[in-house]
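Example record

The entry below shows one chain as it appears in the dataset: sequence first, then structure tokens.
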Amino acid sequence: MPQNLAEFRIIGRIGKISPREKVTYVNVASNYNRRDGEDWKTDTHWNSVVCFSHVRDQIDNAQKGDLVHITGRMREGSHSESGELIYRTELIADTFSVLARLHVDGPLQDN
């Protein structure tokens, strides 16, 4: 039987790690190049990824600036804010890998 999928893959740099009681949120920046007339511009897009259970353990070794590869599934969520229903797409991590570490006093180190 065919399965319907909603998946994502992000390769980017960690901007912020926000641990909570049962979940950790990781903000990851990915860059995209686009043409602007004769020049090329780089646009940065931020993605907030939700990490549960086994993925949280892998984040313990990560830090801001690290290059990471995250895959997972997408889920539509909603909450009420001031009586208005707010919808959002959540990125739920299934895998999390550090590809290269950013060291404060030196260059990137491949992992």
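Notes for this example: The beta strands are 7-19, 24-36, 39-51, 67-81, 84-101, 109-110. The first strand starts at residue 7 and ends at 19.
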